[in-house]
Amino acid sequence: MAGTVAERDALKIEDGHLNNSLGSPVQADVYFPRLIVPFCGHIKGGMRPGKKILVMGIVDLNPESFGISLTCGESEDPPADVAIELKAVFTDRQFVRNSCIAGEWGEEQSSIPYFPFIPDQPFRVEILCEHPRFRIFVDGHQLFDFYHRIETLSAIDTIKINGDLQLTKLG
């Protein structure tokens, strides 16, 4: 993408088009097709050590919260097991995580060195699956680890995203 750092940083989605700060269209391959929130998608082959999930988006202007969950299927009744639920809560400046197995939520974890999300700004969350844990990176910085509570990693085959954000890329 051409342009100065300031021009690249000033990208906004307006009326379904990606424009730079000067209002002219720019190359938008990474942003389309538009990903609709709430989002539910399949993780091909499920999770395994070494597999990484990438979520890129833009936080809404006045956010309350947004969530990213990796689940074992899409079932609502009975609810699918949640291997990890990440929830960014703006009022408390917390990035909480938990899991839900057989309908029972585990112990919530919330300690973080800093809150990485800024209203109306882009972000990049990477969830790296390792043998004993998920490693969570935000904008390239490791934020925390979450140790697996679900033994069969390959059963973790669905990603769900909801809340106050626009999705720009999943990978």
Automatic annotation (TrEMBL):
<comment type="function">
    <text>Does not bind lactose, and may not bind carbohydrates.</text>
</comment>
<dbReference type="InterPro" id="IPR044156">
    <property type="entry name" value="Galectin-like"/>
</dbReference>
<protein>
    <recommendedName>
        <fullName>Galectin</fullName>
    </recommendedName>
</protein>
<dbReference type="GO" id="GO:0030246">
    <property type="term" value="F:carbohydrate binding"/>
</dbReference>
<feature type="domain" description="Galectin">
    <location>
        <begin position="39"/>
        <end position="171"/>
    </location>
</feature>
<keyword id="KW-0430">Lectin</keyword>
<dbReference type="Pfam" id="PF00337">
    <property type="entry name" value="Gal-bind_lectin"/>
</dbReference>
<dbReference type="InterPro" id="IPR013320">
    <property type="entry name" value="ConA-like_dom_sf"/>
</dbReference>
<dbReference type="InterPro" id="IPR001079">
    <property type="entry name" value="Galectin_CRD"/>
</dbReference>
